């Protein structure tokens, strides 16, 4: 599994549609300060479902949309799509190539798709659970993150080990099931209150 391609339109400094193609192996992106190298990494984070504007080095989600320059008007939406080679089937989906896309409008409305079919943020997150690629994964190590990992609380470091061990999806499912159980218990309590009132 590797990142084959990324397409950006209106994302941060990329006002025009651009496409970057990567080969299997190591690729370096070089360029002068402020030319948009980190914006490419932000785009990968974003398309994978990042919800924190701070993680994307902004103050609100609208900051990912091209804000305009002296000569060019701001854009109304931003879109990013990444294509991943999945011939080793590491992603739990029956396609040898997987394209994940996200689009956001200034109104805040957000859309996701997997291989061209609209989907929910949850579907994107579940696709990447335990692969190391998702939002909580370790495939994108941002500036200053190594220090954070070394000095953070043991519980935070544990999240990293959980992802590497492949147990995140079970932990998420467990917490959803526990929440449902709690709701059912509350319903049962309510029913027994009503029954005792009738009796
Ligand atoms: P460095 O080498 O200094 O880390 P870099 O190549 O990684 O720089 P980035 O941080 O990716 O550069 O890009 C910063 C540039 O992106 C700045 O010029 C900033 O004005 C521009 N930028 C960020 N958000 C937007 C936006 N919403 N609209 C237009 N330009 C933006």
Automatic annotation (TrEMBL):
Q: Which residues form a coiled coil?
A: 167-199
Chain positions recorded as ATP binding sites: 32-39
Q: Which domain of life is it from?
A: Bacteria
Where can this protein be found?
Cytoplasm
Q: Which family does it belong to?
A: Belongs to the SMC family.
Let me see what the UniProt entry remarks about domains.
Answer: Contains large globular domains required for ATP hydrolysis at each terminus and a third globular domain forming a flexible hinge near the middle of the molecule. These domains are separated by coiled-coil structures.
- Note the subunit structure: Homodimer.
The function of this protein is: Required for chromosome condensation and partitioning.
What is the name attached to this protein's record? Chromosome partition protein Smc
Parent protein range shown?
1 to 199 of 1185
